[in-house]
Amino acid sequence: MTAQAAGLRCMFTYTLRRLAFAVPTVLVISLIVFLMLDMAPGDPTGSLPLTIPLEVREQIRAALGLGDPVLVRYFKWLHMMVIIEPSHMLANATGWNVAVEGPRILSWQTRSPVGDIIVQRIPQTLWVVGLGYLFGILIAVPIGVISAYKQYSWFDQTGTFVSMVGFSVPTFFTGVVFILIFSVWLGWFPSMYDTTHRVRDWDSFLFQVRQIAMPVAVLALFNASQISRFMRASMLDNLNQDYVRTARAKGMAEKTVLLVHVLRNSMIPVVTVIAIGIPTVFTGAIITEQIFRVNGLGDALIRAIYVSDWPMVQTITFIFAILIVLFNLIADVLYGILDPRIRYD
User: Superfamily for 115-306?
Assistant: First the structure.
């Protein structure tokens, strides 16, 4: 067996071990989330008129399964969350007849299946939060590399100042400033996101670009500020290593030393930051979506918290936990690709 094949086998075995460990981790997280929200104040009949008799309220609670013991309700919710809801999501996305029959997780606020609401809101979240995160990475990596290579230059000092401001100032303040400047004073972009807009031609595409420009810019500035600081610090740490001096002494081009050797090793800690931040793309940016009225998952989560819609909160939180565990595993696997010194046996 070649060394490369042995390395792939070790990585595959390591991935299986981590997946086997991730399953009980996610189950424990789901139980903790369910129990915490079950003990929180709030009731599905709380928004009903006071004229509804008490016995009718109890019938509504019983119909939603709230009369069962807490562990029974947890396992019912887990079965719906792991089997029934994903099957309906897959059926709606592909048109295949794979939906599993059975009760679904219903939102207390809308009385609609939670999975359907999440599927409806994911495109808006990916448009805004996903592009904001992507542009943040594309901006942060070159800024961090150049700032480290030209340490204490005007570029480094400017980048440090902008990064500190972008990371320190909260997004709700940045969003309000952007609205004030670019919507109220200059009139370049709409201040509110039109979730009913559909891209059908070139003009509608340009309007879509205009309405996502500000929320994407706010999120990109915040994400780039954080990632660029990690990128700069990691590059500075590797630029002073012995292997860099050896590579330069052998006559390697400075571009090769910087972009092939130093950048590859410097990306290892940055990968962790990027991977941990990816789940936020799918769960939405709560504050930014509220400011620009983006009808995404972050907006759904905050509205569910306001009205004590615990099934919606439980579902989104559980999805967020799964994504965190998954992308931490992906980050660990990428370590071995970026740094061959890391072994998985």
Answer: MetI-like (1.10.3720.10)
